[in-house]
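User: Could you go from structure to sequence for me? I need the amino acid at each position, not a summary. Structure tokens:
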């Protein structure tokens, strides 16, 4: 299971680097987006396999777990829709198909619908454990993702002439609320590992905020800065985030060995 997890993370990093390289090249590369789609699809498949192995283990340990079966179905359906989206996106960018973005992103709407369904199903568990902050963040994330996708599709299809600064407001709102959440966790960190993890998350949120602000300002031609700055910030945030995940898993493994 761990090998699939590492593969998905590495494939995600390769995808980000390839994507930045393709956009920064002066001359278009033939079939560039086809090559670009490969690490994305590999990453999605590896991630699905990782979660499937985890859920299969959960089901084996608790055969009556309805939540595990629902998670199993939801994750696989979401993964399939992500792959369909990246295929349609690749064909669109390679000018093989000429359809509107709102049609191409239908699989992403399906993923959001799955996330909403799963969120509603898990809501009582969040309330029972008094995880109100987490509940609020998840609801805001799902809603803002939907709003951002609708606005971006309308802009790309030229049916709505909003500035990209306004279109990115849902993204900044989500990051901002997560920033407040991480500050709250940082101030009440009970041990140094929690404090370090929350500090890393604060840095990641800050870097992503700067990156998306620069991208929006560049797209609106308000403030022109090299796109490479935004891409480097996003890639660095990605590396930082998963470094923190690995540190957490390492600490858990060390704690279990001591027990």
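Assistant: Here is the amino acid at each position, in order:
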């Amino acid at each position: 299971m761990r090998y699939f997890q590492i593969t998905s993370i590495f494939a995600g990093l390769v995808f980000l680097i390839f994507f930045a390289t393709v956009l920064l090249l002066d001359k278009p590369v033939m079939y560039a987006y086809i090559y670009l789609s490969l690490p994305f699809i590999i990453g999605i498949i590896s991630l699905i396999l990782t979660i499937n192995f985890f859920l299969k283990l959960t089901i084996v340990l608790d055969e009556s777990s309805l939540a595990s079966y629902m998670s199993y179905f939801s994750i696989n359906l979401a993964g399939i829709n992500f792959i369909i989206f990246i295929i349609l996106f690749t064909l669109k960018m390679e000018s093989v198909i000429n359809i509107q973005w709102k049609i191409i992103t239908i699989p992403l709407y399906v993923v959001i619908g799955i996330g909403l369904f799963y969120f509603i199903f898990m809501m009582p568990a969040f309330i029972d454990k008094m995880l109100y902050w987490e509940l609020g963040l998840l609801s805001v994330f799902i809603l803002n993702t939907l709003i951002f996708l609708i606005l971006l599709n309308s802009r790309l299809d030229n049916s709505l002439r909003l500035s990209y600064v306004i279109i990115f407001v849902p993204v900044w709102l989500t990051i901002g609320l997560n920033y407040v959440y991480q500050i709250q966790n940082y101030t009440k960190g009970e041990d140094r590992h929690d404090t370090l993890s929350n500090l890393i998350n604060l840095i990641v949120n800050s870097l992503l905020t700067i990156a998306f602000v620069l991208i929006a300002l560049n797209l609106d031609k308000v403030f022109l800065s090299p796109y490479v700055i935004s891409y480097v910030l996003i890639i660095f945030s990605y590396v930082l985030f998963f470094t923190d995940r690995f540190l957490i898993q390492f600490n858990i493994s060390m704690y279990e060995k001591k027990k």
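One structural detail worth keeping in mind: The mean pLDDT is 76.
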